[in-house]
Design goal:
The complex is a heterodimer of chains A (814) and B (104). Chain A has 814 residues and is α/β, with parallel strands linked by helices. Chain A is 32% helix and 21% strand. Among the domains of chain A are: 170 residues, FAD/NAD(P)-binding domain; 116 residues, FAD/NAD(P)-binding domain; 57 residues, no CATH class; 72 residues, no CATH class; 153 residues, Sulfite Reductase Hemoprotein, domain 1. The two termini of chain A are 53 Å apart. Chain A has a five-stranded parallel sheet. Chain B has one domain: Rieske Iron-sulfur Protein (3-layer Sandwich). In chain B, the strands form two sheets. Chain B has a six-stranded antiparallel sheet with strand order 1-9-8-4-3-2, with no helix packed on it. Chain B has a three-stranded antiparallel sheet with strand order 5-6-7, with no helix packed on it. Chain B is globular. The model of chain B has no long low-confidence stretch (mean pLDDT 93). The N and C termini of chain B lie close together (5 Å). Chains A and B meet through helix 17 and strand 39 of A and strand 1, strand 2, strand 5 and strand 9 of B.
Chain lengths: 814, 104
């Protein structure tokens, strides 16, 4: 017999938990849901746009009644289905109308109630909260035939309600007891900008106001509101939006331990272990919840335990907020007030309506408020959550993650202001309108979902920040996990770092061991996790782990780059970009012999033989290897090329032998596997003709030695490299190359280039490890050299000698 | 009429891998799963004709090497939000022999 799960509360938290549970254990429970509202499950966050008329109720439904039917969930919805009693001893819940259901496990998702200030007159007709569809209906009704509205509470919800009522044609005044609007999210200056903006749209404010009573007409309807300074305002409707209180009445009445909320542990269990609780009704480690992001995390953890996996723990993390008033861009996260031990970095341009403040303690971001220009909000937020040391970027921090170099979408950034036909994702041709439509129609909440449905940011990823911004400004959800905690792929909840730690700590030495230990939902993984984990195993156990060809992308299996017509490109290695007339003759003869349709010089100073059919690969490699050439690894997540300029051997400006050092570096680094492709360049003087400052590792000669630069990129997001250190000898430069590459090999996430990696972990951290600490640097270098012992095998030669020959020939011809 | 052809041994195809059979109807990719099931379909992704035989095989699906479309091995249907279908053929094992059934 199936176990029985009863959920009290048909809101977002409860149903998200049920959805998560159905994903991982669809057959474990018979599920019954009690809800006091007579609908399916809807997105409460989107009530504001319903009030403004930007959306309809139908559009904000997450699960309609059919969903319950399709998933065999019994739904008891309606005001008479309110649960009034729980018999915990016999495990039965009772609704007001007498409906009863027994349970094996119970989930309380009773949410919260709006707080109504007990002012004289608060019980009058027309005094309402802003919480559910019924409230919205009342407000829309009032807007049709009444004129004056007063909103008590200048917080997020109050402003959204006021904005909605104003757009519906009412004269709206907002009453706030402080002189700072949204004081939980904004500081003084940013609140002033917001107030000015809202005033210019027609909202009125009465700040620092003390309400004494709500007055009525003869029929018991609201007529006005009075203050202690003698002022009276006309009001046909009063909306109280002064906060919420966890709805704990039911839990309390049956003896479940409550404080301000229902007290739960890290597995979301109440003091009765059969009873779980989640969402706005709970209190976890002293904290209450009102935003969607932490509640989504709770749903994941709770469903994991309900499913009987028992491996997840809930810990709350910082959240960011955003106001859903179209055109008012603000972003706030963490501790934005600071104290005596913090510094503020502030930018203020009232005329343009821009304000940015970053609060810093011990060189780390602890909070931020952005108004007017919020494009970098998610960047600051992820650095805050990751605890990135910002010492080295402090001077430019406030100007953002300079997106000007992004290719593919011009200078377009501020997401909310983009027109619908603006192309956001240049790789897949996705416009903003497509993304907004998908988010609305398919109820998407996370970047991964948006990627899956629209393909936006699914290829090169350079528009990820922009897509996240569109997601936040459209869905209003503030779900924005940082890179370090994002699941590696859909097969697992473990992040890249979790996987790497498990591999080294638990000495896991194969994909099945990893997927079993971390309880992957798909035992064979997918095209995302298999190559990633293959790389992590290769990096962790050099010489021991055998590279799994079936987990390699075709390019790395065929040692050549696949093209659109399924032909391949062959690139022989030319150390340091140096070649000889003999080699060029061999390449030319090979191109003739196999009728190569395109011969091209690459940006990395190599020669591309483009358009080679699979059948010709091995014979071509044989001709090239016979002449002493090796694979150029132009196809791999590996060292690609070391590019050089002429240098002191011939150049009249050259100060150092750049070709000499370049060849030495390439001899050391060729055939090394890295998390993503890795490019190096060596320039012989500061004119930098090898363009070393947009490479993963750049070496630039000065008269007295070499300057070393890291984490540059010349591709989708131009990033000028960071200066690492200056050295005087070639040997020192070599050690730094090996140490930096090894650190990246050990710490970078699969498919993460050095540029985003360094922005994630911070340059300071990298300097601490390989500049400040000579022993660590040497150890990184030694590990690099050790792993190269096993890696530096020419794959072409191996193939010519017959390795895995069958991959290249048909199984049969019929 | 259909034509039943013995095309090789199971061990000729790597586990979680694929081999191509050249036919008058074009290249057909034969896949072998972790559980030693075999599947056959045209070696052409419905999206931009990528060679599915070059893809990564996982859980009865293959990911196309060109743009990461994921195709079901049993039905040839694109998974997730992508729309498209590859023509599949019947493939089966008789002992250790892989048998391909072609429409005439």
């Amino acid at each position: 017999m199936k176990e029985k799960l009863v959920v009290i509360g048909n809101g977002m938290a409860g149903m998200r938990t049920v959805e998560e549970l159905l994903k991982i254990a669809p057959d474990k429970y018979d599920i019954t849901v009690f809800g006091a509202e007579p609908y399916g499950n809807y997105n409460r966050i989107m009530l504001s746009p319903v009030l403004t008329g930007e959306k309809t109720i139908e559009e904000i439904m997450i699960n309609d009644l059919n969903w319950y039917k399709d998933n065999n969930i019994t739904l008891h919805a309606g005001t008479d289905k309110k649960v009034v009693k729980i018999d915990r001893r016999n495990r039965i819940v009772f609704a007001e109308d007498g409906t009863e259901e027994s349970y094996t496990r119970l989930l309380l998702a009773t949410g919260s109630n709006p707080f109504i200030i007990p002012l004289p007159g608060h019980e009058l007709n027309g005094v309402i909260a802003f919480r559910d569809i019924a409230d919205v209906d009342l407000m829309l009704d009032a807007a049709k035939n009444k004129t004056h509205a007063v909103v008590i509470g200048g917080g997020l919800l109050g402003l959204e309600a006021a904005n909605g009522l104003m757009l519906q044609g009412m004269d709206v005044t907002i009453i706030h007891n402080l002189d700072v609007l949204m004081n939980r999210q904004l500081d003084g200056p940013s609140a002033k900008l917001l107030q000015a903006e809202l005033e210019s749209r027609g909202l009125k404010f009465k700040m620092s106001a003390n309400t004494t009573k709500i007055t009525s007409d003869d029929e018991g309807n609201v007529a006005g509101i009075a203050f202690d300074d003698g002022v009276e305002l006309k009001a046909n409707i009063v909306v109280m939006a002064v906060g919420i209180r966890p709805n704990i009445d039911l839990a309390k009445s049956v003896g479940i331990h409550c404080e301000r909320g229902i007290v739960v542990n890290d597995t979301l269990q109440t003091f009765d272990p059969r009873v779980y609780a989640i969402g706005e009704c709970i209190q976890h480690r002293g904290e209450l919840f009102g935003l969607v992001a932490p509640i989504w995390d709770q749903a994941k953890v709770c469903s994991n335990h309900l499913a009987g996996y028992g491996i997840a723990n809930y810990r709350s993390v910082a959240t960011a907020t955003k106001l859903k008033v179209t055109g008012c861009d603000l972003f706030s996260a963490g501790d934005f007030e600071g104290d005596n031990d913090t510094d503020d970095i502030v930018f203020q341009d009232p005329k343009r309506g821009v304000y940015k403040k970053i609060v810093i303690r011990d060189d780390k971001i602890i909070g931020t408020v952005l108004y007017g220009d919020t494009i970098d909000g998610s960047w600051y937020f992820s650095m805050m959550k990751d605890g990135v040391n910002i010492k080295d970027i402090r001077n430019t921090l406030l100007f953002g993650q300079v997106h000007l170099g992004d290719s593919g979408h011009g200078e377009a950034n501020a997401a909310a202001n983009l027109p619908d036909d603006a192309e956001v994702c240049g790789c897949n041709g996705v416009c903003k309108g497509d993304i907004v439509k998908a988010i609305n129609e398919e109820n998407l909440y996370t970047l991964e979902e948006v990627r899956a449905v629209t393909k936006a940011s699914a290829s090169c990823g350079s528009c990820t920040g922009l897509v996240e911004q569109i997601l936040v400004s459209t869905a209003g959800g503030d779900y924005n996990p940082t890179e370090t905690e994002k699941p590696l792929c859909a097969c697992t909840t473990s992040s890249h770092d979790n996987v790497r730690d498990a591999i080294t700590d638990q000495k896991l030495k194969s994909f099945p061991e990893v997927s079993e230990y971390l309880e992957f939902t798909k035992t064979e993984g997918c095209h995302v996790c298999r190559p990633a984990i293959n790389y992590y195993l290769l990096a962790a156990w050099p010489g021991e782990y055998e590279d799994d060809m079936r987990s390699r992308f075709t390019n790395e299996r065929m040692h050549a780059n696949i093209q659109k017509d399924n032909t391949y490109t062959v690139v022989p290695r030319m150390l340091g970009g140096m070649t000889t007339p003999e080699d060029l003759r061999v390449i030319a003869d090979t191109a003739d012999k196999y009728e190569v349709p395109m011969v091209k010089v690459t940006g990395g100073q190599r020669i591309d033989l483009v358009g080679v059919s699979k059948d010709n690969l091995i014979p071509m490699w044989k001709d090239l290897t016979d002449a002493g050439m090796v694979s150029g690894h132009a196809y791999g997540k590996s060292l690609r090329t070391v590019k050089t300029c002429i240098g002191s051997q011939f150049c009249r400006f050259g100060t150092q032998d750049s070709t000499g050092l370049g060849v030495r570096i390439e001899e050391m680094t060729w055939a090394s596997w890295t998390p993503a492709k890795f490019k190096i360049a060596v320039s012989g003087c500061p004119r930098n003709c090898a363009e070393a400052t947009i490479k993963d590792f750049g070496v630039v000669a000065v008269d007295s030695g070499w300057e070393l630069y890291v984490a540059g990129n010349g591709g989708m997001k131009v990033r000028v490299s960071d200066f690492l250190v200056k050295v005087t000898t070639d040997d020192e430069a070599m050690e730094y190359v090996g140490a930096f590459m090894q650190m990246y090999r050990e710490k970078g996430h699969h498919n993460e280039r050095t540029a985003p990696w360094i922005e994630r972990v911070g340059l300071t951290y990298i300097k601490q490890e390989i500049v400040d600490d000579a022993d660590k640097r040497k150890a990184f270098y030694d590990r690099f050299i050790e792993s190269q012992k096993y890696a530096q095998v020419d794959p072409w030669k191996k193939r010519v000698e017959g390795f895995d020959k069958q991959s290249f020939i048909p199984l049969a011809e019929v | 009429m259909s034509q039943t052809i013995e095309i090789g041994k199971l061990t000729d195809i790597p586990k979680l891998g694929s081999r191509v059979v050249k036919t008058s109807q074009g290249d057909i990719a034969i896949f072998r799963t972790a559980e030693d099931e075999v599947f056959a379909m045209h070696d052409k992704c419905p999206h931009k004709q990528g060679a599915l035989s070059q893809g990564i095989v996982h859980n009865k699906t293959v990911t196309c090497p060109l743009h990461n479309w994921v195709i079901g091995l049993d039905d040839g249907e694109a998974k997730g939000h992508d729309k498209g279908c590859v023509k599949t053929f019947e493939a089966k094992l008789e002992g250790d022999n892989v048998i391909l059934v072609l429409d005439k």
